[in-house]
């Protein structure tokens, strides 16, 4: 089952990371966006495990919430899409840099801390 | 015959050199036509030194370097971890896609129309690209990745590239000097990490022609006593340890060594290198004249000396010359150094035997 991982946005701050099955285009996992999760998404994605239980924004399991009933576009516009292997498949540059400003630079954080 | 247009009429390039009297014209260093020819015949065709792999150790790490007058984006791919080199120029309107000297990034976005490239140089997005009318609906992202160098070589950690697809392989290009480069790249200061560049390094834009440091100064050792007199007086220049006067550094005894001049005139390059025939670090001479300072100096220099050994290797003359062949204009060249030891002489150290 090939997956892609997407960062989508309904409005500034109302953003979600999705795991989407490529063939069926079905959402199989969601993570409410926060700075740490987005930093992971923008780096090696090791913390984004599609097989783990769903969780709310505080990391608590959200049993019974079946996000698979929703097509990915219901989570808003695609900011960035990556393959499971890490390839950047698509980016909307305007949304991407607005997101970088909102989640990172406005908080004095660097989305790519590898050299820090 | 190559002709150069001058105020005194067209002249052949050979007329600038008087082999009978051993003189040459200053026009060789300043004439824009000559510089243009050098860009086309040397910098666009030769293998050029880009840097060292330790400058981009992590996936997504990047740095800006130069090939002639061109800025080149050196980046380690996030997926396959390979280092690649691209012309730092957007395929759309030619703006720089990376405006920082170095860092770590997932994508590079041109500030003009937001064409965005990943760390493998692929075009992954652009403003308005979802509009079916943009780019006449014909933008094939697969065809518009960043321009990659024609050939790239990671040679024992040192990174080289050429724009010429027909250029010989790196090893064939270097000829007999390849072994010298390998030996230098495998140099060690007795530690296991191998050759590396200490960061942050310093970079200067120096108002001089690239041939001055690359050839004229590198082959003219007599200039050091005057040109570097101030740093020699402070005992931090290239003449330190060469004589007793002015030296405030504890000096090491010399390890047994053999120096070579290696090159092939038909290939047009070569250099000098020294093979140290004993492993490790030499003992210090007792030269310090202030009581108590000698022992302190010896202790502190032992640590810094181990580090300096590496820096000497990366900033050896042929590598330094290669760095400086980043000609920015006929009268500008860029010079990098990885520490205050950037002016040290060519030296390699035989790896410690195990």
Question: How would you characterize the overall build of this protein?
Answer:
The complex is a heterodimer of chains A (116) and B (354). Chain A is an alpha+beta fold. Chain A has one domain (3-115). Chain A is built from two helices and five strands, in the order E-E-E-H-E-E-H. Chain A has helices at residues 35-41, 93-103; strands at 3-11, 14-21, 26-32, 77-83, 88-91. In chain A, a hairpin with a 2-residue loop joins strand 1 and strand 2 (14-21). Chain A starts with a strand and ends in a 13-residue tail after the last helix. The mean pLDDT of chain A is 85. With 354 residues, chain B is an alpha+beta fold. Chain B has two domains: 48-152, Rieske [2Fe-2S] iron-sulphur domain (Rieske Iron-sulfur Protein, 3-layer Sandwich); 175-349, no CATH class. Chain B has nine helices and 20 strands. Chain B has helices spanning 27-30, 32-43, 170-174, 177-185, 211-217, 224-227, 229-233, 293-314, 317-324, and strands at 3-6, 9-12, 17-18, 23-24, 48-52, 61-67, 70-76, 83-87, 102-104, 107-109, 116-118, 123-125, 151-155, 158-162, 202-206, 257-264, 269-276, 326-329, 332-337, 348-349. Chain B has a four-stranded antiparallel sheet, with no helix packed on it. A three-stranded antiparallel sheet of chain B has the order 5-14-13. Chain B has a three-stranded antiparallel sheet with strand order 10-11-12, with no helix packed on it. The radius of gyration of chain B is 23 Å and the shape is globular. The N and C termini of chain B lie far apart (56 Å). Chain A binds chain B through residues 42-44, 85-94, 96-97, 111-115, and chain B through 58-61, 78-79, 102-107, 109, 114-116, 118, 122, 124-127, 130.
